[in-house]
Amino acid sequence: MSIDWKAYDPNGFYDELISAPGIPRPAAKTLTDYLRSLGDAEIHERKQAAEHAIMEMGISFTVYTEGGNIDRAWPFDIIPRIIPRTEWRRVEAGLRQRLTALNMFISDIYNEQRIVKDKIFPAEILSQSRNFREQCRGIQPTHGVWAHICGSDLVRDADGSFYVLEDNLRVPSGVSYMLENRQVTKRVFPELFENYSIQPVDEYPSQLFDMLASLSPRPLDYPEVVVLTPGIYNSAYFEHAYLAQRMGAELVEGADLVVCDDDCVYMRTIDGLERVDVIYRRIDDLFLDPEAFNPDSMLGVPGVMRAWRAGNVALVNAPGAGVADDKVVYAFVPKMIRYYLDEEPILSNVPTYLCMDDKEREHVLANLDQLVVKPANESGGYGMIIGPHATPTQLEEFAELIKRDPRNYIAQPTLKLSTSPTLCDGHLEPRHLDLRPFVLQGVRTDVTAGGLTRVALRKGSLVVNSSQGGGSKDTWIVDTDTRD
Amino acid sequence: MLSRVAERLYWMARYIERTENTARMVTAFNHLALDMPYQTRVSWAGLVSITGSEAVFEDRYSEYNEANVVKFLLGDPANPGSILNALNSARENVRTTRDRVPTEVWETVNELHLYARFNLDAGEGKRGRYRYLSQIRSRCQQITGMLAGTMSHDHAYDLIKAGRNLERADMTSRLLDVGAVGLLARGKEVDEDISPFEGLLWINILKSLSAFQMYRQHVRRRINAADVLRFLVQDPEFPRSIGHALAEVEHSLANLPRNDIPLRMAMQVKRHAVDSQVDKLLEPKELHRFIDDLQKEMAELHGLVAETWFRLDKAA
């Protein structure tokens, strides 16, 4: 039996592929027709081919468990998500605008703090910020850019418009899966690539390398660029190795690097010590340098902050960039865009209540069962509560947490996250998803064509994190202009 | 190249070579077992002693029979040298250096590991064993070939070659030790003639190293202890002879920076192998001592390689 699109019903949610049961969106029609032409057995075959490819290519992520770490196969749904290119152009422009303003904000915060003096951004948020680094005051990195790599999470609400949910400016991950998802899809549905004009994504590693190389403190033809990983037990180790390989950069661990008396960073090689120019670090600020931050860190490089401050090495993203990666600071991004760029934000924020504000906190506590409440500084979907899905006891407990530490919490209305057809037990069902595009900023700004689509595989679930039962899909930015 | 990466690539090569050698050896013994009359002393225990893991084996099994030994050598998680464990380690070493190794090599290592794991039952059974082991052997060779054909022959590659050849020389020496046991058996007989058992034993050693055909082509004499020993210890052209493998180690190390100490050691071991007087080694005790000395020197060479290029504090 083949797929019956009339039986696929997203139940009032905005669906990425169809506008109503049985009616595909224009950009998706070729795909939905094609899927319908396949029988159940054939769909199953494609799914198996994808699983096989993922095993063979060794696409994995690491899960922490009590019994140790497990290297798990990457969960992937073969049905791609399609976004028309005309729509994407606007998102792209919005992301550029946003990261430009965020970088101006970070620069300002560590230097003059004009935005605080002009009373656009409250000083007390800064003084209580967990990601503000005193050690970064007065630094002016190359091109004035602090957050060179940004992964912003976008969601669509019921009306189909995109909202920014958060900006990941510390060590955003997922881009390797975006690249590998495309490789797998090419193996599974090669015929579709002939009939669609799909924007390629594979330029990312070259763009990343060019951006990193442009930050070298020494004007060299071949600067030494390294990727600093916490090691094989990190959940994103696969990605660290993947990016290092695609860039031809050295993948290093903290113990491979040393800072000498000349305040330069060197790596330990079979030839002896070799100078390092650019470090793409995938380690959080606090573990980066035991001399400057957490003295117990075994992952970092003692003295690397010294070398950075002396201008002898570039750190990417710059230490302290996380000051803008905070769900409270997030609420101010539209204001930053108006303040620094004198432009209206192209992409909207999700309406956000700050619990530190007395009036807004009252509203949050009174409507807790309808809101999503998140801690300001967690990632990976930890420590949050989804009001409509929580028990009364959980809500009560959470209300206490908010009262105890209001600065740490924000609340947002429960969005009606869009859905897309996902293969569940052999047939298609709507599942909620988000999108994480990646933005690179150096001399120029590049946005990936699409990004990593994460999908909540459990029915009705809104949690898309791979550590919590999420999967992913290939994301196609499709040129509809050239086709009928 | 990072010292840490150097170490992992070196071990990756050793584990792949170990896997291939073990598969080759089990295949050869398997053939021999089918040839020999029931009561002969081709004992499966010999296979365990070649890998030097009698203690681990005896801890786990009460009897040296075919089923136990094959299980132990192929997939026993408690045996660090089992094919499955060697492949686990090889895979882990490539996984943690996949930025340096050509992608197709990583994929092949990964697939080989999956193949060995998922088909273990077939490999342990009598009927599927040949196919299982020959698959493993040829996939290991595929990896060696891919490295030769798609990886730049740089320092990383030199270390891979050094690791592979040191492991290979070590394996050949271990198999020759079995020959020493054979000589011991002959020592007890008055008759100087080679017993049929001993002939078969040396043939089997040659076959375990895939050396039988090349021995025939290059030695052209009937199988006898002295010639087999000379061929496997000193032949400059056969890739699995100790002399050849150590010469390869020497060439690889010669390309590496700061190599004086390990290179000197590599030349010394090779000289001891190539210049040895084979005729004097036909005494079982002599042969055993000779091999023991060679193995000690090879272990020392490995130690110097690690000391020179892998230790992080040495680079600073």
How would you sum up this structure, described in words?
The complex is a heterodimer of chains A (484) and B (316). Chain A has helices spanning 29-37, 40-57, 85-110, 114-117, 123-127, 175-188, 190-195, 204-213, 237-247, 285-288, 304-309, 327-330, 333-341, 358-366, 392-404, and strands at residues 18-20, 23-24, 60-65, 68-73, 76-84, 149-156, 162-168, 225-228, 250-252, 257-259, 265-269, 272-275, 278-281, 314-316, 348-349, 353-354, 371-375, 385-386, 409-413, 419-424, 427-436, 438-441, 445-447, 452-456, 470-478. Chain A has 484 residues and is an alpha+beta fold. Among the domains of chain A are: 218-312, Rossmann fold, CATH 3.40.50.11290; 351-413, Dna Ligase, domain 1. Chain A has a 5-stranded mixed β-sheet with strand order 5-25-24-21-20. A 5-stranded mixed β-sheet of chain A has the order 15-7-6-22-23. In chain A, a hairpin with a 2-residue loop joins β20 (419-424) and β21 (427-436). The longest helix of chain A is centred in the first third of the chain and has 26 residues, at 85-110. Chain A is globular and about 70 Å long. With 316 residues, chain B is mainly alpha-helical. Chain B has 2 domains: 1-151, no CATH class; 152-316, no CATH class. In chain B, 75% of the residues lie in helices and 0% in strands. Chain B contains 16 helices and no strands. Chain B has helices spanning 3-35, 45-50, 54-60, 66-74, 83-95, 103-118, 120-124, 126-150, 155-187, 196-208, 212-219, 225-234, 242-254, 260-274, 284-310, 312-315. In chain B, α9 runs antiparallel to α12, α9 packs antiparallel against α15 and α13 (242-254) runs antiparallel to α14 (260-274). Classes of the chains: A alpha+beta (484), B mainly alpha (316). Chains A and B meet through α2, α9, β9 and β11 of A and α1 and α6 of B.
